[in-house]
Amino acid sequence: MTDSVVPGRQNDPRGHADPNVVPPWDNGDGGRRPPNAPTPAASSQVTTPVPLPPVAAVPAATAPPSSPAANPAIPPFAATPATPPFTTTSAGSPYTAPTFGAPLIQLTGVTKTLKGQQEPRTILAGVDLTVRSGESIAILGRSGSGKSTLLSVIGLFDRPDAGRYLLNDRDITKLPERKAAALRSAEFGFVFQRFFLLKHLTAAQNVAMALVNGQGWLPRRKRKAKVMAALDRVGIAHLAKHKPPRLSGGEQQRVAIARALVREPRVLLADEPTGALDTETGNLVVEVLRATTDQGCGLVLVTHDRDHAAKMSRVLRLADGILNPANESQANERVVA
Ligand SMILES: Nc1ncnc2c1ncn2[C@@H]1O[C@H](COP(=O)(O)OP(=O)(O)OP(=O)(O)O)[C@@H](O)[C@H]1O
Ligand SMILES: [Mg+2]
Fold first, then answer.
1. In 3D, which of 57, 61, 135 has the Cα closest to residue 299?
2. What is the pLDDT of residue 288?
3. Alpha carbon of 149 to ligand 1 centroid (Å)
4. What is the pLDDT of residue 6?
5. How many angstroms is it from 57 CA to the middle of ligand 2?
6. pLDDT at residue 274, as a whole number
7. Distance CA 268, CA 270 (A)
8. Among 29, 63, 219, 282, whose Cα sits 20 to 30 Å from the Cα of 321?
9. Cβ–Cβ under 8 Å, residues 251 and 236
């Protein structure tokens, strides 16, 4: 399977396969598990990679409704104007913070100690974080400061050792793993530095992979409509029939974002999504991600790039296991890995 994945730089220390693609047995309600499949990892241990379903299990090709030639009216991708930075405007007038929707995520006093082969290390030492609907949050921090660990906790791959986690006002701090898995696939979309695309499938088919779930496949027409809407949302509906080797890095990442969006998650978690892209392409991808919040999605973007961070509605910094607002001098600092 791994040799089917388009190569890219791996940045997920826990080695997750693409979590947007939910294996059919991972239905969160005690459903079937394939023989010899690994059981979910214990919360504080190294997480077992989520297995992708075997390629042979991919249903009939999800072709787009029409070829680009037959559908020339697909509008080109239009970049949405960036959200004002979190600081005051250049004219000196105070920047008025936009109002956002209901809290989607509320972490209070979350701690996480990782127990590897060496001594246990406290990575999160009391994190407080609220993510509201429509809000985009950048998280900066030195390499090893725990940004990916925090995303893993938010995305329900890891569970907090202490503290409280409310998701849509529901206390899920101690939710059993099976229910957490169901919630993860229903509520979250994931984007990584690595694209995790299957190179023998078209862009549309890669996106459709995320619609596999414990309840089986959606009716074909609905599936196609969802896939095309997701590709359209990131401006590449016209590339639906292209396979990854024919797509640029930025286009591949947009396919990955479409795959994360196709189940209409409430929160998008992006871990250094521009790490493998050049500056210009990275800017475009960040803009695509930020634009997802226009429709109410919450976005948490982990990045080392201060310019990308400044496009979010809020910039935070993780240091010494604590999340704090990043001041401008910190945000302007290029964090060296
Ligand atoms: N499964 C694990 N078991 C033990 N230690 C781990 C595990 N995963 C990560 N760590 C350690 O936890 C610390 C935080 O890692 P994490 O990947 O969250 O940092 P990060 O801020 O995302 O870094 P980067 O910017 O390089 O991606 C690191 O010191 C890392 O070595
Ligand atoms: Mg990381």
1. 135
2. 94
3. 6
4. 40
5. 31
6. 96
7. 6
8. 282
9. yes
Q: What is the DSSP letter of 45?
A: S
**Ramachandran sector of residue 190 (left: φ over 0; alpha: ψ -120 to 50; beta: rest):** beta
Q: Could you tell me how many helices (H) and strands (E) the chain has, helices first?
A: 8, 10
Structural domain boundaries of the chain?
Answer: 2-32+54-87+99-331
If one residue of 46, 114, 301, 316 were mutated to test the ligand 1 pocket, choosing by the most ligand atoms within 8 A of its CB, it would be 114
- Terminal-residue alpha carbon distance, the chain: 30
In this structure, are residues 127 and 110 in contact, taking their beta carbons and an 8 Å threshold? Answer: yes
Return d(Cα 210, Cα 163) in angstroms, integer: 31
Q: For the chain, how are helix, strand and coil distributed in percent, rounded to 5?
A: 30, 20, 55
Evaluate whether 253 touches 62 at the Cβ level (below 8 Å).
Answer: no
Phi, psi of 223 (to 5 degrees): -65, -45
Q: How far apart are CA 242 and CA 202, in angstroms?
A: 5
With a 6 Å cutoff on the Cβ, whether 14 touches ligand 1 is yes
How far apart, in whole angstroms, are the C-alpha atoms of residue 61 and residue 208? Answer: 9
Architecture of domain 2-32+54-87+99-331: 3-Layer(aba) Sandwich (3.40)
Residue 84: CB partners within 8 Å, gap ≥ 6? 95
- The radius of gyration of the chain from alpha carbons, rounded to an integer in Å, stands at 19
pTM reported for the whole predicted model: 0.75
Task: Report yes or no: 163 and 184 within 8 Å, Cβ to Cβ.
Answer: no
DSSP 108: E
Q: How far is the CA of 325 from the centre of ligand 2 (A)?
A: 19
